[in-house]
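Weekly sync, protein design subgroup
Attendees: M.S., D.O., the rotation student, P.L. (late)

Item 1: inverse folding check
M.S. brought a backbone from last month's batch and wanted to see whether the design step gives back something sensible before we order anything. D.O. pointed out we never logged the input encoding, so this time it goes straight into the notes. Structure tokens as presented (276 positions):
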């Protein structure tokens, strides 16, 4: 599984899927408009790459909802809540390919520009993945060896030989508040996976007050008042959910809130990581 970094642009956090999509869209748009300038695609719409990208996003979302439709039955509105990061990119790529094929069939002069734009997007995307993967330090691929504690003051190991979900959160964070019931329910739903809700940067009194307000089982909580884990991993925004293999490898880093469905998709990564 690729472990690509989240990019920070001022107050904006760009998860890997988002910045990679924007980069490939930019590459396709540059090549497409260059072809238009050369006159190889007369009467073509300059925004065709953007339209196809939108079709791809729709396909990726529909594909994800289709895969995890049972998780959306309890809260159907969640199917349109794209903040959970639920995308199935094979369906998105298929939707783009289908849209481009239909367009090329209807307007043969567009076939060459479509092919060149697609090739540019694929090449730039591949190079970006290779470069970003090479830039990720080895330390960011494993949990740091630090000490955290539970509400009772007892030490809580970050790695204990089981696949884990470690959620970095803070009480002032609205998305953290929205996703907390999903994580609490997930701890009951996936008993073979360990859940640790690791508070970042707040003292015990604040966390204990939050436990009462949000109805969080105390046994799921751990304290990191100096944000040692978040700082060591370069986390820039909350919530951030880490999917951890039994040996401490970070299999996935999810920025932003999770839904019932996107949590289930992440749990599958934890299960797969135990068999690598």
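Designed sequence read out in the meeting:
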């Amino acid at each position: 599984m690729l472990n690509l970094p989240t990019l920070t642009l001022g107050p904006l956090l760009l998860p890997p899927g988002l910045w990679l999509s924007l980069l490939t869209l930019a590459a396709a748009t540059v090549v497409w408009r260059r072809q238009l300038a050369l006159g190889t695609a007369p009467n073509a719409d300059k925004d065709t790459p953007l339209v196809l990208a939108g079709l791809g996003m729709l396909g990726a979302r529909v594909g994800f909802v289709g895969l995890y439709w049972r998780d959306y039955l309890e809260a159907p509105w969640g199917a349109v809540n794209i903040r959970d990061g639920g995308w199935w990119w094979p369906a998105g790529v298929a939707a783009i390919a289908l849209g481009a094929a239909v367009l090329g069939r209807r307007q043969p002069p567009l076939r060459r520009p479509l092919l060149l734009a697609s090739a540019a997007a694929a090449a730039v995307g591949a190079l970006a993945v290779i470069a970003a993967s090479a830039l990720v330090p080895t330390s960011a691929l494993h949990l740091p060896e630090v000490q955290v504690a539970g509400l009772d003051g007892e030490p809580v190991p970050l790695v204990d030989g089981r696949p884990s979900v470690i959620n970095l959160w803070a009480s002032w964070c609205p998305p953290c508040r929205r996703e907390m019931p999903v994580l609490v329910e997930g701890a009951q739903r996936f008993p073979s996976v360990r859940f640790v809700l690791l508070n970042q940067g707040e003292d015990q009194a604040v966390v204990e007050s939050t436990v009462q307000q949000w109805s969080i089982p105390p046994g799921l909580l751990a304290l990191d008042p100096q944000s040692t884990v978040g700082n060591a991993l370069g986390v820039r925004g909350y919530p951030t959910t880490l999917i951890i293999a039994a040996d401490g490898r970070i299999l996935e880093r999810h920025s932003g809130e999770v839904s019932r469905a996107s949590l289930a998709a992440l749990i599958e990564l934890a299960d797969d990581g135990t068999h690598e």
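Discussion: The beta strands are 7-9, 12-14, 148-149, 155-156, 164-169, 194-200, 221-224, 240-244, 250-255. The mean pLDDT is 86.
Action: P.L. to compare against the previous round before Friday.
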